[in-house]
Each structure stands twice: as structure tokens, then as C-alpha cells.
Amino acid sequence: MDASLNTPPAPTVIQRADYQPPAWLVPEVTLAFDLGTEQTKVVAALKVQRNGQSQTLRLNGDGITPEAVLVDGQPTNDWRMDGADLLVELPGDAHEVSITTAINPAANTQLMGLYASNGMLCTQCEAEGFRRITFFPDRPDVLSVYTVHMQGSKDLFPVLLSNGNCTQQGEGPGEGVHNATWHDPWPKPSYLFALVAGDLVANQDTFTTMSGRKVDLGIWVREGDQDRTHHAMQALKDSMEWDEETFGREYDLDLFNIVAVSDFNMGAMENKGLNVFNTRYILADAETATDLDYDGIEGVVAHEYFHNWSGNRITCRDWFQLSLKEGFTVLRDQLFSQDMGSAAVKRIEDVRVLRAAQFPEDSGPLAHPIRPDSYQEISNFYTATVYNKGAEVIRMMRTLVGPERFRAGTDLYFDRHDGEAATCEDFVKAIEDGAGIDLGQFRLWYSQAGTPRVTARLDHADGVATLTLAQSVPPTPGQGEKQPMVIPLRIALFDPASGTHQGEQLIVLDRAEMQFAFPGFARRPVLSLGRGFSAPVAIDAEISDEDLVFLAAHDDDPFARYEALQQLIVKHLLAVLDGALTDAALEAGRGAIAAAFAAVVGDRALDDLMRGELMILPGEGYLADQLLVADPGAIRKAREGLKAYLGRSLEAGLLALHDRASAVPYALSAEARGARKVKTQALALLAAGVPQRAADLAAAQFDAADNMTDRQGALMVLAGLETPLRQEKLAAFLARHAGDPLVIDKWFSLQAGSLHPQALDHVKALAGHPDFTMTNPNRVRALYMAAAVNPGVFHVASGEGYRMIGELVRALDPINPQTAARFIAPLGRWRRIEPLRAALMKAELERIVAQPGLSKDTFEQASKSLG
Ligand code: BES
Ligand code: ZN
């Protein structure tokens, strides 16, 4: 046997430093699609123009073969394959190259390129999906004007959509066939191409731009779903208006369409003039969507719309620059959501996401800077680091210069680079020039991975408070030595007697160690540091429990108030996990937290949305991150132990809170949403402390619910309890929502994410449920991602949770490698888990890399996680 069959080929590593401008440009392309679910023919006519010395035109392909190649209208033999790529030899400087390919959308389970979903055809091209449709220089720095002809069965595909404007519609060719032509005047990279054909209906509306142009808006869904598109439509109009007001950005086509599809790898995609969305980020009504779903829709609709400028008008030179569009657009959608609702709560939620998803990435084997230096498979770099840390980095620039100067910087950026494929460096330079700031050292945020750790100590003597700060950036794969970063810190010094401060200040830590002196303090002040989470760092402050209790009650910065309470709890739980607490110290610690919680539950000045936020304990993952080596079982026990204590000692107050909130009728107002949030938070604490009482209350909330937030919240609590009500309500929920895939997803997730001691067995049984399928990414994530992030399932001491996820990865990889690869990161945490479990996790990764024929996606993640 050929030995090479056993050894996987050495992975190709793409390096940022190797960037070369394209040898050929494609100023214009015409695509003709003859659409069919099992066979679609594509003829691509490329006007190509030489951009260097090479006579060889390289056209990327993936899983396609050329059926015909023409140069300047004539069949030619001057082409060859180089792996999956097509190389054409061209003598002159300008030619028209035409290529015919055939694809089978129904067989496309990867959901990249052209695929079938629920009878419709749709595309997903970012990052490298266009090459699965036709041969093309599939790289973001090749910008082309697209004309798209499509024809297909009127019956199967009554609606034909593509980017830009529809310039022609007609009958034929032949019986029952119709056709359409679309033209997009804005040059764009291939990853922004989109096509949709199907039996769809639209919710239509209009928006008038600041210069008075009328834009037709359409949200396309399957018949019967129109009534669930109103929230998305409102979000779209709000986004368009907000981007005009906040960034001066106006929409640039007469048409903006969104299509919702149920099989989609990601959340949504910003194709020019034709966004394609996962149904979960479009469809909502009170009966089927939670308040969180409503927020998700608003944020994602805004995000994709905002890409029209930050991504489409100015795109990325290469995929290493991904944060140029994603980090910036995440910041833009965060600021939008802050303006649309509670800014304080939005900030806390964003920080929670960063800590839950990005901090672990930054401290693990897959750590990379927001502008990576190399990759094997670019799909693996759509990460919390590129997105969420990327947004934090740009937010810091804004913090350093203030909103007005930041706006001057972004104005210059949009002006200077409109129509270009730009780099992160271009962005930083534009902010430097436009805002008038030196970002020399600040650029390290683009090149250094790892979460900086800041230590802080406040001394007080002779009326002067002295703040001593030190920073260090931990080593990450490939980066041993780090330089000090520029860390903006918003601080306030409180007078403990009056509970006030003399105004917030911004200090900048840009050396390894620094001291800041604050005269004029007769008494020792209380330090509030990193207000608003002004930098994506971990702060280790020498601060007493007493000061934390003070800040948790008095800090006027809502994030800082939340943070103080979190810190108090983290310190306590770490002490419990350390095992060295005396009974008296344990009691004292719990007592202090309970007192702070009681204040939160009873504080009339707090709005319920914020109250609900403050009632959430630090997550198990975040607690694990504070330890060099974590025992997930012990963390679950300690955290649930504290919840039980709080549920018991605050029972009366929690019941009263639940009672009060239950009287608030359903509405989408902040007040009503806050009421629903505290209701379920109260239930969650009661469930830990007084489970029987909580089960009855949850069942009552479930039965009385006239909306999904209350119903799901109640069911989530019941799913974690050992009570006959659990099965009863799970069955009722399933029966009520049968046939609604997005709600069935919730039903799977709730059980996989539950605190129930047998949750792992439940997940295994659910994998055999008739509604489970491996071909729909939403369903796979609903069951298995919920399981993989539930320590009570994933980390069961036997290793069965790891085995289950390992088996999933191996079974899913041939179907949908992008989705499969996303399940590796939880196993990759093995170095930070106690040795018995760590060995089992590692063994599972080894089993994965040993699988023959593994995708690049999964191979990269698994091999790096072992390495
Ligand atoms: N451009 C991405 C979609 C995408 C992601 C395409 C990965 C290819 C690979 C889109 O703008 C995006 O970022 N979507 C996010 C949601 C957003 C609100 C952060 C997503 O799909 O998760
Ligand atoms: Zn995006």
C-alpha cells in the first residue's frame, strides 16, 4: 500500500507577510445561471486585465471542474489545472475569459457556495465560497462590477434575486421558465456576491435617506412567516438612520433586500444589497422569540447593514485584515444597540461575551492577535478575538480621543479609502491623522496576542493617594516575549464617607510599571478602576471586600458597580475552591454576598434590566479561567452552593420580586422586559435553594406565560430540576411549538444546557430524537454547542462528554467541516483542566486528528490544540 495514503499532506500555511498584489484584475464579470436544485449551470465571463508581469491567470476553484474554457470567444487549450485551481495562459494585457461549470446545490452539505435549503437556492461566499461556484481570483482585493443573469423554473423559483438592481425580468427560455438580470454598479470582491432563488414573500417598506433618496426595503421569507419580520424591518430602518446620524454614512443603492434561510452556517452575511440571514436573526414574535432573540435580531440586522460601508465600500485587502471590517462593524453594532436600549446593560453583556468567549481563546492553544500572522483555513479565524477583541481595540481608540475626534478619524478613513481593499494599518493611520493622536505603540494591540494582566494597588499617605499599576502580557503560541501595551483606564476615587467622587479621569498605562499620584485626599479613597471596561484586560486589584461592597452599592458607573459585585463573588468562590476557608469565614463571605444581593433585589432606584444583570453570578468558565488548573466538578459545586445559599436566605425577597414582576403585562418596553428578566433570575436562585417551591412557581409561570421569554425561562429552570413537572412541561412545549424549527432548537438547547444531574444522558437520548438532524447547523448547535459549554455535561468525570463531542466532530466533519471545527475549542482547553480529565480530552483530540480525510478546518484546530 502506498504509504502516502496514511500520512495526511502537510498543511499549507498562508502567511500575512507573503501578500502579493493580484497578477490580474477583473474589472467586470457577467454570470449566467441556469438554475436547478440538482444541477445548476454557470457561465462566467470575466474581463481580465493584466496587473503585473505574469502571463498566467490563476483562477481559484474548489470541488468544480471546467466544462468549457474560452478566451476572447474562442475555445482554447491553453489552460491546465494546478490542484483545484485553473491556470490560463494569456498573451496580452486584456482578455475576456469565459468558463462553464456545473454544480449540484442539493448535494452541498457544507453550505458554502451555492446550496439548496428548504427548496430554495442560495449562496454563501465569504470567505472562499465563490470558488465553489465558478473559477475566479477569489480574493478580496479583486473588485469587479457584476451583471447576473438567472433563469429557472417559475414554479420552483418564482423569486430571483441578486446584488444591486433588477434591470430586466422576462419569460422563458421555454415553458414554465422565467429569467431576470441584476446589475450591481459598485465594484465588489467575489465574497460579497449573492444569489437567491425560491418561493418567497416579502415584507416591503421604504426608507428615505438623508439626501432624500427613496430606498425600497424587502425582507424575504417563506409564506406564513411575514408577520414575524416586523422587528427586523424596524431594526433595519433604525440602523439606516443611526448610521447617517452617528457616522454620516448613507445607503448607496435603490434597493436593500434581506433573505432569511433556515440552513446557514453563521448568523448572517452582508452581501451587497442582498443580505442573507439565518432565520433565527430575522423571525420574531412574542409567542416564539425571547427578549434576547429580539436584541439579537436588532444587533445582527444592524451589523450586516453597517458593513455596507465598513466592509463593502471599503473592504479588506486580504483575510488577515478581517478585523478591519469585523472588529469595526462589531463596535458599530454595539454602539447602535447601546443607543437603542439600555447602554449600561448592553455594555455589561458585551463584556460578559468577551470574557466567556475571547479570554479563554486568548489564554489557550488557539490564541492569535486580532490581525493574525498566518492561517491554514481562514474560516477558523472568524473568532471572538478578531470580532470582539477587535471591537474593544477600536473602542479604546475612541476612548483615548473622545467621540468627536474619533468621528473625525472615521470620516477620514471612509473618505480616504472608499472603493479600496484596505488594511488594518490604513485604518489606524486614518484615525491617527483624522483624530490627531499618535498610535505608534498602540499598534501592538494588532500584533500581540494574549490578555494583558494589570495589577493595581492604592496607597494613601499625607493626603496623597498613590496608584501603582503594572502590566504584563502572557506568552502565547509563537509569541514568547511581549512589549508593554497602551492601556487606557477610566478611574474614579470615591470618598467613602460621602459616597461621591470628584469626577472620572482617564489615565494611560503604557509602561510595564507606573505610578499616579492624586493629592487632596484627607481620607483614603476607594478606587474604581477600569470603569466602563475601558480596556480588554484582566485587572487584579488589591482591594478589600469592604471596598467592593461599597462600590457594588455606590459606584455611579454601572459597569463598575456590576464588576465590584462580580469580584466579590469571584474572590469568595476562589477561596471556597481553595479549600482553606474556615466555617466562620465561609459564613462571613456568603453573608456579605447575600447582603449585597439583598440590596440589589430591594433597591428601588435600580431598573429591572440592570437588576437582572446584577443578579447573574460569574459563569463557570470565567471562574475556571481564574485558576491555573481547574476542576470543573468542584466549580459547579461551589457556584451552585452559593446560589442555593442565596436562594434560601433571600427566599422571601425573591418571591416578592417574582410576584411584583409577574403583574407586569407583556410589552416590549424596557420596564416590561426588565420584569421578565428578574422573574427568571429570581426563579434560577430559588431553584438552587428551595427546589420544590421553585418547581411549582416555574410551572405556574410556564402555564401563565403569554410570551416565549417567560415560557422559556420557566422551562429552563424546570429542565434542571428533578420533578415530574419537568417532563410534563417539556412535552407541552414540544407539542405547542411542533413545526417551528427555531422553537424546537430552544427545546433541544434548554435540555442540553440544563443543570440536571443526568443532562448528559438527556443529550445522548436527544441525538436520537426524530427532530434531530446533522444537516442543519442550528439544530446541531442547539444540541451539541449547548452541551459542550455546559460543564455538567462536557466535563463529567468519566470522559463521556468529551467522547460525545469527539464523535460528533468526526461524524460532522465530512458533512459540514466549518461547523465541525467550531467544536474543537472546548476540547482544546485541556491544559487548564485537572490531569485526569485533561488526559481524556487530549485523547479525544488525538482520535480526531487520526481520522483519515479530515478537513483543513478541523485539522488546523485539533492539531494546534494538541501542539
Ligand atoms: N461577514 C460575516 C459573516 C461570515 C462569518 C461569513 C464567517 C463567513 C464566515 C457577518 O458579517 C458576521 O460577522 N456575522 C456574525 C454576526 C455578527 C452580528 C457578529 C455571525 O454570522 O455570527
Ligand atoms: Zn460581520
Would you write up a description of this structure?
This protein is α+β, with helices and mostly antiparallel strands. The protein is 41% helix and 21% strand. It is built from 28 helices and 32 strands. The strands form eight sheets. Strands 6-5-9-3-2-12-15-14 form an eight-stranded mixed β-sheet, with no helix packed on it. A five-stranded mixed β-sheet has the order 17-18-19-21-20, covered by helices on one side. A hairpin with a 5-residue loop joins strand 2 and strand 3. The mean pLDDT is 97. The chain binds ligand BES and zinc ion (ZN). The site of ligand BES has 17 residues, from strand 20, helix 2 and helix 3.
Write out the strand line-up for the largest beta sheet, numbering strands in chain order.
Answer: 6-5-9-3-2-12-15-14
Residues in β-strands, percent = 15-25%
The averaged pLDDT comes out at 97
- Compute the CA-based radius of gyration: 28 Å
**Unreliable stretches:** none
List the ligand species: ligand BES, zinc ion
Number of helices: 28
Shape: globular
Using brief descriptors, characterize the structure shown.
5-stranded mixed sheet; single chain; binds ligand BES; globular; binds zinc ion; 28 helices; 32 strands; 867 residues; 8-stranded mixed sheet; alpha+beta
